[in-house]
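I am still getting used to backbone structure tokens and would like to learn alongside you. To get us started, please write out a protein record for me. Once you have written the record down, we can walk along the chain together.
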Amino acid sequence: MTNVVTGLERFVEQPPGEALAVRLGLLTNPSGIDRRMRSSINLLAEHPSLTLTAPYGPEHGVRGEAQAGEHIEGSIDPRSGLPIHSLYGATRIPPADMLDGIDTMVIDLQDIGARFTTYISTVAHVIDACAEHGKGVIILDRPNPLTGTRVTGNVLNAGYVSFIGIHPIPILHGLTIGEFGRLWARDRQLPTPVIVPMDGWRRAMWFDGTALPWVPPSPNLPTLDSTLIFPGTCLLEGTNLSEGRGTTRPFEIIGAPWVEPDVLADALTELALDGVSFRPVYFTPMFSKHTDARCGGVQTHVSDREAFDSVTFGPWLLATLKRLYPDDFAWLPPNDGSHFIDKLAGGSGLRKAIDAEASIEDLLAGWSREAAAFERDRSDILLY
């Protein structure tokens, strides 16, 4: 195990010149801590050489007070007394008046390296807004918990850009949040953010090899295992099945009232996917889909995380569910003209392949070619 030093810890120990004698905003959430569990808000607010004027919150809020998709209003931070600006409420793009009180935005967020997390979308919007209004950006880098070597899945089709797919990158992009900021600025031809890099992180590291404390990056990713499985089972958000929200094991447990646990577990086992096994379960979600209804399903158990490919698992899972339960399985109906599954999948190809009972092997082969092309394209923005 390596003692990785985060960008936050390096920033607090020796702030770069761009952070001195200026008013700072701070985009963060509960994952923004040092190894002693001290919040980046408190560390910057109490730092003798820094002037923090306002925290900014992404989805789930600055202090993690909101569930997935819950809109958040501005407020006052109870400890620092500073005004909190929400970027997951009335607006997701900071307007000029929201940036008036700062000169530079500091970003300290623990991302998970998956395309459809909203944190990188918020980072992208903040970089855009700061460039437009003449503000600086400093990103305090943190590990990609799923390693920086996993680049898998199709690249987002430009016609399907949304808040859960902001840029043409694969489902797993293998970037740290600082590297994503560099990629976004490069592709948008914007000023490159100042990155405070980590010390000691290597691309092949999993999060539990960093000696850093694990803080759930969102309320529904409580463990590294749930985070590892999430890129595959998150696709169920575009269907009428529960992805396990409202249980103690979101994204590990999935199912619906009409699923027969043993039948599904046996069918998934027959796929002989590497590094994973499936346990039949019953569960009752306390919120989200199928609230208070008994569901049947499976829990995904990863036995070899190096061999398990969650992105490959997702399409096979959907195809199996559609085959076993053709009269019950359904895509969520289109909203604002697009199926939600298409936004998650970065295009309509996955949905159409499942509906046509097309070859999953052929679909995944195409995804692999797209990921390989992206991996070559990202080489100039890597920091480690």
Summary: The longest helix spans residues 360-377. The chain has eleven helices and ten strands.
